[in-house]
Amino acid sequence: MSALRIIRTGFLTNLKMLGTSSFFLLTSIVQPVIFATVAFYMFRSGGRSGTLLYAALGAGMMGVWSTTLFGSGGMIQWQRWQGTLELGVGAPPSMALIYLPFSLANAFTGMYALAATLIWGRLVFGVPLHLVHPWLFALALPATVISLGLMGLVLASTFVLYRYANALSNLLEYPVWIASGLVFSTSLLPVWTRPISYLLPPYWGILALRHAALGGEVWRPLALVTLLGLASAAVSVVAFRWFEHAARARATLSLT
Amino acid sequence: MSVIEAIDLRRTYRTTTGVLRRRPLEVEAVRGISFAVEQGELFGLLGPNGAGKTTTIKMLITLLLPTSGEARVLGHDVVTHAREVRKRIGYVFGGDRGLYERLSAYDNLRYFAELYGVSGKAQRLRIDEVLELVGLRGREQERVEGYSRGMRQRLHIARGILHDPEVVFLDEPTIGVDPIGARELRQTISGLIDSGKTVLLTTHYMFEADALCHRIAVIAKGRIVGTGTPKELKAGVAEGRVTEIDVFGVDEATVDRLRALDGVIAVTVEERDQKQVLVVQTSGERELTAPLLAELDGVEVGRVASREPSLEDAYVALVGAA
Lengths: 256, 322
Hints:
The complex is a heterodimer. Chain A has 10 helices and no strands. Helix content of chain A is 80%, strand content 0%. Chain B has helices at 53-60, 82-88, 105-115, 120-134, 149-161, 179-194, 206-212, 230-236, 252-259, 289-295, 311-321, and strands spanning 4-17, 23-37, 42-46, 68-73, 76-77, 89-93, 167-171, 198-203, 215-220, 223-228, 241-248, 264-272, 275-282, 300-307. In chain B, α3 (105-115) crosses α4 and α8 crosses α11.
């Protein structure tokens, strides 16, 4: 009960903070529109019918991943700069529980990216918004967003120990877009990259969303994205515990 | 059982120096500190910047692991039972940082109340209570980014005592706060003791330690160089005398000559406007004014005064001898 209250309050608190950040708002509003425009022109030039919604979903998920990655990655760094990281570590609940709602809030705001992309595609490029399995889509969307949030939490844990781990988050944006098949199908990638794709929640998330929207098997990718989300949660609990201990030993919780 | 126990506590920071050829560097911040704080006591750790006060407090509040030694708070080991310690303590750091700037004071307190398990019903009452205590009632809906330093500091204290902890750690809580704000904060700290809490305070303001603390440990270069009540510490230098000499343009070599005089315990130089004030502590066994002035031959000398030692003098003598 107390854990649920911490998650709820942390989630709302972070949403409030994100809502007052003009940098975050500007990035969140403008970036998806740019992604969507580029993706639509790319796919339109391919001249294949039925690919516009495919592109819209991919571009939307690119936005969700970017928001999650930078939000979750920057979260710990920003807390360190603000001097609140030590307060989080010094509080009785586990770090994973304290930062889970922050990560979920970041991923939740990423949903705007998906919605903005679909609306932009409908209004400017005439992308039809007909969904083959609307209920499964409604199920796949939160499952994907939550799984991405949990993946972001694993990344965030590394920031507790490494003060400059944001270099890592900058490196991870494009590779995950590509390995997850958000920009183009992973069948175009070398075979050795497949296991990497299979371990990424966005790979299964976009598959579930595309199948729900355009037709295809939804339950298997939906189950896998959920499973990977749960695995990320378990990894983040262990990682936070380990990194917290190491950070207390190496004195990296504060700037000084 | 003491509320806070530190036994031969040590902390070494390992870092590197150099750009291309990186060399390991070890800094011993705390070098074997031992002390105990009893129930309801306001214990002060007094020392100059870099003496190891903050490192000590961070080990006690479980944010840093000691390199060696032991520490317990309310009987719980700070390394092996960190969670038990965290539930029972509150802590406040001095300075601007450590608050969610874009949130209101109320939202900040609400978030931390949740983290410390202040239940839903009690939450509102408790937040109102601490806001009243620190004098922020009526300003709680404003965003923290618009707060003055004094207001932030008061909010820090409100956050630190929100869950009604048994032990409160205050790390230089009045640093950078204007005199009136600092006085109000000291009243709030006194109030904590009146309400039965045990407080460990670090400061480098002598008058603050003198006014607030039941007992003080003077810390310098990572070691405790003196412990006692303010009265006991003052008594340590009570047999001596302090001579204050106003001078204009004294150099370091002359100050060193004064330090070398037989019977001189410590000499400090305070810059005041155009002049410098030499504060010379002597053993008091014999009158040293004449020999001091003789060493200052060639230096323009103004007022010369002699007085009883203060806590500040005791502190200077202890730190100077470290």
